């Protein structure tokens, strides 16, 4: 099986306060087939983020 690279294609909400708390939506390719695959691996600008399980949607195409 060939390795498949993840690719972020769109980020909605491009700025927020330095203290955090801003909801960010990330669209991409091959980011994970299940929430558990991304649960502890999301960073924006090097800052760890907390993904929301109820907001995670797997690819439809």
From TrEMBL:
It comes from the Eukaryota. GO terms for molecular function: semaphorin receptor activity. Pfam families: TIG. Residues 8-52 form the IPT/TIG domain. Signal peptide: none annotated. One of its GO terms (cellular component) is plasma membrane. InterPro entries: Ig-like_fold, Ig_E-set, IPT_dom, Plexin. GO terms for biological process: regulation of cell migration. This is IPT/TIG domain-containing protein. It comes from Cnephaeus nilssonii (Northern bat).
